Each structure stands twice: as structure tokens, then as C-alpha cells.
From TrEMBL, chains A, B:
InterPro entries: HTH_HxlR (IPR002577), WH-like_DNA-bd_sf (IPR036388), WH_DNA-bd_sf (IPR036390). Transmembrane segments: none annotated. One of its GO terms (molecular function) is DNA binding. Residues 10-108 form the HTH hxlR-type domain. It comes from Chitinophaga ginsengisoli. The keyword Transcription regulation applies. This is HxlR family transcriptional regulator. Keywords: DNA-binding, Transcription, Transcription regulation. Gene3D superfamilies: Winged helix-like DNA-binding domain superfamily/Winged helix DNA-binding domain (1.10.10.10). The lineage of its organism: Bacteria, Pseudomonadati, Bacteroidota, Chitinophagia, Chitinophagales.
DNA sequence: AAAAGTGGTAACCTTAAAGTAACTTATGGG
DNA sequence: CCCATAAGTTACTTTAAGGTTACCACTTTT
């Protein structure tokens, strides 16, 4: 189980390891607009459980895509925001979306236009 | 379990469903150079079992990314090739790779250059 | 003092993907 | 007629991701 040599140096696969999680793209999408509190994220993605949301956030944090700020306040307040590294993913996600939309619109195999 | 409303219309996630499989990016990468026989693919990706390779190829075929041509020959010969639809993914994969490489090279958050 | 809001954690369960190993089918060559 | 080769398939097990439910810690409001 340790000999995925092919995996080790394939940048595309390393990238997918960062964003391939079941909910990560959605979470990144939510955070791309504003920094958000835990509960705000959860409201926007109701079908994710708090446990899994926590896990995904921890992984995104460990991978340096988001950071977590804890405020000492009345009821607890924790805010998640994209790091610069995380922001650098946004055009990539846009590109991935754009490909799918292109494919749906045209019959196939057309040239993909990058969104701006 | 059926109410992933958020999933349903997120193009990025739909795209990841096509290429997010454990081995799909690697397989597409192998096929991007030549059409390849089953055994040739397996030699290039030794750590994938024949069972899983078959499954992944069937899924890629069902999604219209590759096609399978069976030749009536001496020992069996089956060849897999990218469809035009599959080829339209190549720039996307290149972009994904390029992002990772950019990130490794520079300290972070730089503008990503599309490969040509 | 009790309740309520926020952001969790712990213990446990389910399921889907992946892996292993042995068997199968079709074909041509010797 | 038997064997080798290519391309699988079948049956079974393992693993990892995700899900459910219940509980905890801290603070403020009533």
C-alpha cells in the first residue's frame, strides 16, 4: 500500500489531494466570498454534518488553504478565511467550472475559454 | 443521503466526479500520449490492480472520456484511446499541474501561467 | 441557578472504493 | 489437442471516508 510511486510526483494528483475531498470545493467556494464563521458555513452547506465540516476545515487548514481565527467573545466566535495560497486556487476552480459549462453548452471538444 | 442539493448544480464538483477517481488522472495522462492496450496501461501504472484498472476504464468509457476498441486478433487486443471529449480535458489537467508547480516554485499566491 | 448559543469532541456505525487471489474466455501456434 | 497470452471476471476482504448521535466547555441572558 505504500508503493504509489506514480502518485508521488504527479502534480495533478497532488492538487486533487488538496481539493478532492467530498466537500472541500464547496467550502472553498463559500469562503471565496467572505470569511465565515463555523455556523455560517454550516448554514450554507446544510447537508454536511458538523463533525465532517470540522474535519474538512482542519484538513484545509493543515494544507494551508484556509486559516482559523478564534475571537475571545460573548458566545464563541471562530472565523475561517482563505489564505493567499487558498485564494490562488480560485482561478483554478473557476477553470474547472468553466470546462464543465463549456462541455454542456457545446456538443463537445471545443476550445475552453478561461473565465476572467 | 439524497439531499446533496448543493452538489447537484456545482460544475466544479461535477467535473471532479469525472476525474476525481483514485487513478483516473493517471490513466488519462497515459492515454494522452498514445492510445494504449490494457496491458500497456497496466505496465505504466503497476500499482493498480487489473480489477480496478478495468473498473476505472469502464467508468471513463461510460463518461465518454475514452473509448475501447477490440480487435479480432491472435492474442486478444483491446485498445483504449481518448475521445475528443477526453482530449478536451487535457488543458484542464495541464492547468491543474501548472498550478501545483507554480505553487512549489514561488512562495505562494502568484499568478498562474497557463501551459501551452 | 438554569437555559441557550456557539463551536466543537468522542464513540460508534455504514458504505463505497480499493485490494487480493483465483478462475475464465478467446485465439493462434506448435 | 494442449498450451500460452491478453484481457478480463468473480468472490471475498480491507480500508478509508463519511455519517449519526450524544455529550462537553465557555459565556451571557433570564
Amino acid at each position: 500500500m505504500g508503493n504509489n510511486l506514480y502518485h508521488a510526483d504527479c502534480p495533478a494528483i497532488e492538487t486533487l489531494a488538496l481539493i478532492g475531498g467530498r466537500w472541500k470545493v464547496i467550502i472553498l467556494h463559500v469562503l471565496s466570498k467572505h470569511a465565515r464563521r463555523f455556523g455560517e458555513i454550516n448554514v450554507r452547506i446544510p447537508s454536511i454534518s458538523r463533525k465532517v465540516l470540522t474535519e474538512q476545515l482542519r484538513e484545509l487548514e493543515a494544507d494551508g488553504l484556509i486559516n482559523r481565527k478564534q475571537y475571545k467573545e460573548h458566545p464563541q466566535k471562530v472565523e475561517y478565511a482563505l489564505t493567499d495560497f487558498g485564494k490562488s486556487l480560485c482561478p483554478l476552480l473557476a477553470y474547472i467550472s468553466a470546462w464543465k459549462k463549456n462541455v454542456e453548452g457545446n456538443s463537445s471538444q471545443d476550445i475552453i475559454q478561461l473565465p476572467d
